[in-house]
TrEMBL record, chain A:
Keyword Nucleus (UniProt): yes
A cellular-component GO term for this protein: nucleus
Domain (HPt) ranges: 38-143
Gene3D superfamilies, per the entry: HPT domain (1.20.120.160)
Keyword Cytoplasm: yes
Function: Functions as a two-component phosphorelay mediators between cytokinin sensor histidine kinases and response regulators (B-type ARRs). Plays an important role in propagating cytokinin signal transduction.
Species lineage: Eukaryota, Viridiplantae, Streptophyta, Embryophyta, Tracheophyta
Gene source species: Hibiscus trionum
Protein keywords: Acetylation, Cytokinin signaling pathway, Cytoplasm, Nucleus, Phosphoprotein, Two-component regulatory system
Name of this protein: Histidine-containing phosphotransfer protein
UniProt cross-references to CDD domains, sorted A to Z: HPT
Residues with the Phosphohistidine modification: 79
Location(s), subcellular: Cytoplasm, Cytosol; Nucleus
Main localization, broad class: cytoplasm
TrEMBL record, chain B:
PROSITE patterns listed in its UniProt record: CHASE (PS50839), HIS_KIN (PS50109), RESPONSE_REGULATORY (PS50110)
Span of domain CHASE: 157-368
PANTHER family in UniProt: HISTIDINE KINASE 3, TWO-COMPONENT HISTIDINE KINASE
Entry-annotated residues carrying 4-aspartylphosphate: 925
SMART domains recorded: CHASE, HATPase_c, HisKA, REC
GO CC list: endoplasmic reticulum membrane; nucleus
UniProt name for this protein: histidine kinase
Occurrences of domain Response regulatory (ranges): 728-849, 875-1012
Catalytic activity: ATP + protein L-histidine = ADP + protein N-phospho-L-histidine
Entry keyword annotation includes Kinase: yes
């Protein structure tokens, strides 16, 4: 594929991510932090986010299956998830986390379950979006092009 | 209010009732006591002690009642202890009073009955006595007649009495025996004497009823004399009638009058009795035996009593015969009383029985009296008891209403408390919401503004640039507005805290002045600041907030002032207090622009500070400032003045349309002033102007400057150049206030100033020549007034020539009038446009006098660049439990060249930060599991303190600790929620500041620059 076309595709894709609210300016800042000294910074951070989030989501699912639900622990997990998602700028996940925390505080099991499903869904979405974006970037750099900012 | 009144009323009524009860109880016991005293005369010896005892007793009772009273109050005072208690009380009250009224009714009606009975008995007795008396009188007459007969018939021979005489006599004396209807005399005739007697009389003895000649008897009692009415009984044998025989026998045996049982009289067919007396031959002794009496009997005198008519007659003589019914009975035979008089109409009412004694012990008579009418209704008793019942019910109703009202009021009160709580909660929630929303809006707005900034740097044509400028201005206005709302919300939720940094008040006011200078020049309004010399150079407080207040007040003034001036004056409170008495002359004319102003002394009339005699803060390093902002604007209409400080309230809705603004500026200012321990007030006269005055307490900055980092970052380049030191200047201005302002600003440059009011004076000073005058500053007003003379002045001053002639400056109010330059011709004249402020003045002077200008050293540096300078090579520890956050923060700091070490737990951080270490700073997340940021910081500070102490006492060598004797690593909190992590909380556990997460370059720079310099 044409390199220029790939680059344009990447830019369009990224803009759509911003437009659809998957990402916010924090992600831009993250990208700004990436330089020659630290060429894979964004990918590193994001994959860290994936690991972290998957662990947290698992914990949350387990916690909700328990007979006696430890809402305090759940709240801490959700707080973590909120923090990391806001750090990478995954704002849809972050916003859901805020709702989720409210349910945790209210000890609303049904709400929590619903929220967990939504968070999982959003997380999966943002993950695929980010992965496909990285794939595009990879293709561009493999083709020897520079990644447009 | 009315509810409260009702409540009060209820209490009062209850109290009254209770007092009444107490009083009644006391009266009863008092009476008891007094009676006891009276009834107990034998206690004379014990008198004293007894009395005491009583008094003690009484004391105790009253104490008890007082206690009850007290408890009653407590009871009332306590909540609604139980409604049921009140209900029970009410119920028993009503029952009690109902019983009481019933018993009162019974008592009263029984009294009435008793009285009735008494009346009846007295009436009955009266009648009985009268009847008896009359009967006795008649009886006595008959007895007297018996004596007559024994004297004149039996005592004389031949007899002096015959039938004719007897009849006549009796007839004529009948009035004396009103009860008898007839009298007759029968003589005792033995059988042996019969024949002789019959012969003598000329008739045979006849039997009664049958009227046949009497059969042979042992003895006979034929009637010989009779009253005319009863003359038909002559010759009848009395012993032949059953009743009569018995009567006769009994009479002669007893020697007394005897009565027959009532029987139908022969002729009249009415009920009557016959009274019989025996006539004896000789006087018998009182104790004569019956036999002796029989032997001595001569005859028998009988009288017929017509009882019925007798009683009738008697009763007619008496009054009120209508009211009672009288019956007379012969009750000799108890079981068959024989009615002698009266109808038998039975009346079940009460009856009184009076015994009658007619002198015959064998016969018993009684009189029975009854009322004719049934007893009347006891109206008095009924009304009294009903009245009492009604009163009791009314009182009960009052009680009930009171209790109900109390309960209702309490309920309402509870409801209101609930509502109040809800409202308060809602208010807090509103503030929180506002804060959050404002915060959220600010972030994207910053993006917009940044982008616009960048856009302006690109190639744009004029129209585009204009659009961008407009967009940016609007954006800035929006941010300012949001900041205001955020401030308001923060203040309302009590989360606004003031900084404590050192700042230069004069520099701040210069800043504000420059902010408004453009506008003031456009409007032609004169703007001036005057700060008293006694206000210290450096103060410690919150410069930003102070500036905000001044800006708010000046902004308002600017909005509403179209002509005249706006003057800001800053004094020490002490100065103003001193001057209150001194400054008595009217200052209304003596103003900056000559327009009248509202007297600013009125604006601080209500301040607490001035009410007290002594200075409020005797501490040496606290500075009480009083700041007045005076304008000659529209003024505030009197009706709007009370709500000037209410948030979102404007004088008139149209104001916001014509002048803009949210109307919270003044409210925020008021809160801020309050936070600065000050007060704010104002005076305003419509069409003349307003003066706002506030006080604020700061600390003096010079003494303890070490503790506070000087805040020089914002007030850049306000350091006043010193090259003018020692110069001399003349200010020509006839208006003292304006001259004072000018002198203040020029003096700040170190220039000695003399104020003169006219040309002559000026020239004479220049001519004096002992001290070279370097510059002359002339008010434009003076200059324009007489251009000729001013030109002359310039000429003259140049000719004097002590070396260099003085430079002449024109102090001009607006830029537009700088065209007046032309009028001055070729004169060497510079124009300094007002408002005066040190930096601008210095620049103008420099330009005119040719003194070199040193450029500003650090301007245009972007924060990120300075951040890089600050952070390069610094070793920084980041503590965050969230790996992603940690990575991002580390990345950000690394970008600025910092050497970053990461830690994920609080304990790890403590280990790493235990001295000796090489960290320059630490960023700490607050919310972490196990140990949160506050706790970790506290522990780190403890460890540091411990080691510092040991080093100080020489227990540990300084060498082992990198030659640092005072360990204190700057710790900054990282938090996503700025409003939650309050400055105070951070400081309390030893943190040095906080930054928001994710990092913002500017904030990061501001915080970090406090430590790395």
């Amino acid at each position: 594929m044409d390199l220029v076309q790939l680059q344009r595709q990447l830019v369009d894709y990224r803009t759509s991510l911003y437009h659809e609210g998957f990402l916010d300016e924090q992600f831009t800042q993250l990208q700004e932090l990436q330089d020659e000294n630290n060429p894979d910074f964004v990918v590193e951070v994001v994959s860290l986010f994936f690991q972290d989030s998957e662990r947290l989501l698992n914990e949350l699912s387990k916690a909700l299956e328990q007979q006696i639900i430890d809402f305090k622990r759940m709240d801490a997990h959700v707080h973590q998830l909120k923090g990391s998602s806001s750090s990478i700028g995954a704002q849809r996940v972050q916003k859901l986390c805020i709702v989720f925390r409210n349910y945790c505080e209210a000890r609303n099991v049904e709400g929590c379950l619903k929220c967990l499903q939504q968070v999982k869904h959003e997380y999966a979405l943002v993950k695929t979006k980010l992965e496909s974006m990285f794939q595009l970037e990879q293709q561009i750099s493999n083709a020897g092009g520079s990644i447009p900012v | 209010m009315s509810l409260l009144h009702v409540f009060e009323f209820g209490l009062k009524v209850g109290h009254l009732l209770w007092m009444l009860c107490c009083w009644i109880a006391s009266m009863i016991s008092m009476n008891w006591f007094i009676n006891g005293e009276f009834k107990d005369p034998k206690a004379g010896l014990l008198g004293d002690s007894g009395g005491k005892m009583w008094f003690e007793c009484w004391d105790q009772i009253s104490n008890l009642s007082f206690k009850i009273h007290h408890q009653y109050y407590q009871f009332i005072g306590s909540k609604k202890v139980c409604k049921s208690w009140w209900r029970k009380l009410l119920f028993s009250w009503i029952i009690g009073w109902t019983l009481a009224s019933v018993s009162i009714f019974c008592y009263m009606s029984s009294l009435a009955t008793e009285k009735r009975k008494e009346t009846l008995s007295s009436m009955c007795d009266e009648r009985a006595r009268m009847l008896q008396d009359q009967f006795n009188v008649s009886m006595n007459h008959i007895q007297a007649m018996s004596v007559l007969i024994s004297t004149f018939h039996h005592g004389k021979t031949p007899s002096a009495i015959d039938q004719g005489t007897f009849a006549r006599y009796t007839e004529q004396t009948a009035f004396e025996r009103p009860l008898t209807s007839g009298v007759a005399y029968a003589v005792r005739v033995l059988h042996s004497e019969r024949e002789q007697f019959e012969r003598q009389q000329g008739w045979t003895i006849k039997r009664m009823y049958t009227l046949e000649p009497s059969r042979i008897q042992e003895e006979y009692a034929p009637v010989i004399f009779a009253q005319d009415i009863v003359s038909h009984v002559v010759s009848l044998d009395m012993l032949s009638g059953k009743e009569d025989r018995e009567n006769v026998l009994r009479a002669r045996r007893s020697g007394k009058g005897v009565l027959t049982a009532p029987f139908k009289l022969l002729k009249t067919n009415r009920l009557g009795v016959i009274l019989t007396f025996a006539v004896y031959k000789r006087d018998l002794p009182a104790n004569a035996t019956p036999n002796e009496r029989i032997q001595a009997t001569d005859g028998y005198l009988g009288g017929v009593f017509d009882i019925e008519s007798l009683v009738e007659k008697l009763l007619q003589q008496l009054s009120s015969k209508q009211t009672i019914l009288v019956n007379v009975f012969d009750t000799s035979n108890q079981s068959y009383p024989i009615s002698m008089y009266g109808s038998n109409a039975s009346n079940d009412g009460l009856e009184h029985v009076s015994h009658l004694n007619f002198g015959d012990p064998f016969r018993k008579h009684e009189m029975r009296c009854r009322f004719k009418q049934k007893p009347p209704w006891p109206l008095v008793a009924i009304t009294t008891s009903i009245f009492i019942l009604v009163i009791a019910l009314l009182v009960g109703h009052i009680f009930y209403a009171t209790v109900n009202r109390i309960a209702k009021v309490e309920d309402d009160c509870h409801k209101m408390m609930e509502l109040k709580k809800q409202a308060e909660a809602a208010d807090v929630a509103k503030s929180q919401f506002l804060a959050t929303v404002s915060h959220e809006i600010r972030t994207p707005m910053n993006g917009v503004l940044g982008m616009l900034d960048m856009l302006m740097d690109t190639n744009l044509d004029v129209t585009q640039l204009d659009y961008v400028r407009t967009a940016q201005a609007s954006g800035k206005a929006l941010v300012a507005l949001i900041n205001e709302v955020l401030d308001q919300a923060k203040i309302e939720s009590g989360k606004l805290e003031l900084e404590e940094v050192q700042f230069d008040l004069r520099a701040i006011l210069d800043d504000v002045l420059s902010l408004f200078s453009g506008k003031s020049q456009d409007k032609g309004v004169e703007l001036a600041v005057y700060i008293s010399d006694r206000v210290p150079e450096m103060l410690i407080g919150d410069p930003g907030r102070f500036r905000q207040i001044i800006t708010n007040l000046m902004g308002n003034s600017m909005k509403f002032t179209e002509k005249g001036h706006i003057l800001v004056t800053v004094h020490l409170v002490e100065e103003v207090i001193d001057s209150i008495e001194v400054e008595t002359e009217s200052s209304s004319k003596n103003t900056l622009s000559g327009f009248p102003v509202a007297d600013r002394r009125q604006s601080w009339k209500g301040f607490r500070t001035f009410g007290q005699e002594e200075p409020v803060h005797p501490l040496s390093d606290s500075i009480n400032l009083i700041v007045s902002v005076e304008d000659t604007g529209l003024g505030i209409p009197p009706e709007a003045q009370p709500r000037v400080f209410t948030p979102f309230m404007q004088v008139d809705p149209s104001i916001s349309r014509t002048h803009g603004g949210t109307g919270i500026g003044l409210s925020i200012s008021k809160c801020l002033v309050g936070l600065m321990n000050g007060e704010i007030g104002f005076v305003s006269i419509p069409k003349v102007g307003s003066t706002f005055t506030f006080t604020a307490v700061f600390a003096s900055g010079s003494s303890s400057s070490k503790e506070y980092k000087s805040q020089q970052i914002n007030s850049q380049s306000n350091t006043v150049p010193s090259e003018f030191h020692g110069m001399r200047a003349l200010v020509m201005d006839p208006r003292p206030v304006r001259a004072k302002v000018s002198r203040y600003h020029i003096q700040r440059l170190g220039i000695h100033v003399e104020v003169i009011s006219d040309w002559k004076q000026g020239l004479s000073i220049i001519n004096r020549g002992d001290n070279a005058i370097h510059m002359v500053l002339i008010e434009q007003e003076v200059w324009d007034r007489d251009l000729k003379r001013s030109g002359l002045f310039i000429d003259k001053s140049e000719k004097i020539g002590h070396g260099t002639p003085p430079k002449v400056f024109l102090l001009s109010n607006s830029i537009s009038s700088s065209s007046g330059n032309a009028t001055t011709g070729a004169c060497d004249l510079s124009i300094i446009s007002k408002p005066l402020r040190a930096s601008m003045l210095a620049a103008s002077l420099q330009r005119a006098m040719g003194i070199g200008n040193k450029g500003n050293p650090r301007n245009g540096e972007s924060p990120s660049l300075s951040l890089r300078n600050l952070l390069l090579g610094r070793k920084i520890l980041i503590v965050d439990d969230n790996n992603v956050n940690l990575k991002v923060a580390a990345g950000a700091l690394k970008k600025y060249g910092a050497d970053v070490v990461s830690a994920t737990r609080g304990t790890e951080a403590i280990e790493l930060l235990t001295p000796p270490h090489k960290f320059d700073a630490c960023f700490m997340d607050i919310q972490m599991p196990e140990m949160d940021g506050f706790e970790a910081t506290r522990r780190i500070r403890d460890v540091e303190q411990n080691i510092n102490n040991h080093i100080q006492f020489g227990e540990l060598s300084v060498d082992a600790y990198n030659n640092v004797s005072n360990w204190h690593v700057p710790i900054l909190a990282m938090t996503a929620d700025v409003i939650q992590a309050t400055h105070e909380q951070c400081q309390r556990c030893g943190m040095d500041g906080y930054v928001s997460k994710p990092f913002e370059a500017e904030q990061l720079y501001r915080e970090v620059s406090r430590f790395f310099q």
